């Protein structure tokens, strides 16, 4: 189709991954054990379990990923063939500081990313890097209790400083913490561990523990912004927010208020990182709950001084909610507050497909945070079939991308949203973060591997590969 609108010159087109979901090589080059290394395989509707260390007989899909650790030169050739001008990945913290609390970094780990970034640049692709993407050292969970401990700020900054210095000529765009706001769903232990390394018991107050951990992360993020700018003033250092806009199910005023509180609860992290301070509603809420969050005067100054340069975000789906008589204070409980939206369709994993929601979100974030945006994840997890002709005809994925990219282009061209670039998630098939499956595929590039890690690992081009190639070549005009 040719209904697209060309993006401004210099717009970045790429793809996005995270180290733990594709590298494999979990014990190579002196790498330590990360929280992803102790997560078992789940399935659609079956949560991943976390084992206390590595246990015999368990399946840990992140141990092998798609073996990018060894195959990246060939993979990057394919990325370049597709026309990608940027590549978002993360630096596995455990390759640089295997336990997280060392004072000296691991040279073999640093060398790996030297080589990886050089290979990208050689192919005309600039790396875009997330520092912490669901893969902190497991040792920091066990020995320090994760991000509930203020000491983590120093450990993270040491890691950030080493990376900023080492890659200051190779990387311009950075993000501090991936989807920092997933933990708004603190009743689910999965995001608490993924985001913050929290393993809580019945004796803990989970909600206040989350707010405390997120606070230390946001202080660490603000300090990293400041430090990064000292190391290279050209650095652009962003937040990374999982954007799932929450709609009111009806125009009933109470439903609208419920949706507003849901948005406030999910996105206050962005307020702190982009605006530099906590919103009043949350401070009032903490007071009513009797939460005594450790936020010093110095912390407040740091948050104000270290606001982000841009907001990176993921967008997959939208949510809907409604008020309930038994919830008069509009408390947003993500496990129970979400309702089916009858106006949109769902993926096989129940993710509601809503292209207009992307344009809506871009406008909402621009109005609220007044920062450039960067779509660093968007995509469609689906079951792909290799057909008799040996190809994957993923027209459903092309449709998803067509519809979303068109809305993105309207937000830029018609609404004036300042957008740095667009990197579809998992442009090469990889391990799913929520389920640990291989079967939930996002890629334009197919990887021959199943959920148990069996397969040739051969890479091949899906129909969507050729489609996205043409989108990039036309700078978004030819959808
Ligand atoms: P998977 C929840 C909701 C939206 C995005 O997700 C999410 C999550 C947490 O899983 O995660 C991001 O693989 C995340 C990636 C992840 C991707 O979305 O569960 O940044 O690491 O792989 C897709 O289908």
Automatic annotation (TrEMBL):
Q: Does the keyword Hydrolase apply?
A: yes
Does the UniProt entry include the keyword Protein biosynthesis? no
SUPFAM superfamilies xrefs = (Trans)glycosidases
Q: Name one GO cellular component term.
A: cytosol
Q: Which UniProt keywords apply?
A: Glycosidase, Hydrolase
Q: So where's the catalytic machinery, residue-wise?
A: 377
GO molecular function term, any single one: beta-glucosidase activity
Q: Which GO terms describe its biological process?
A: carbohydrate catabolic process
Pfam (any one): Glyco_hydro_1
Which parts form a coiled-coil structure per UniProt?
A: none
From what superkingdom does this record's organism come? Bacteria
The UniProt entry's sequence similarity note says: Belongs to the glycosyl hydrolase 1 family.
Protein name in UniProt = 6-phospho-beta-glucosidase
**From which organism does this entry originate?**
Loigolactobacillus rennini DSM 20253
Ranked from the top, the taxonomy reads: Bacteria, Bacillati, Bacillota, Bacilli, Lactobacillales
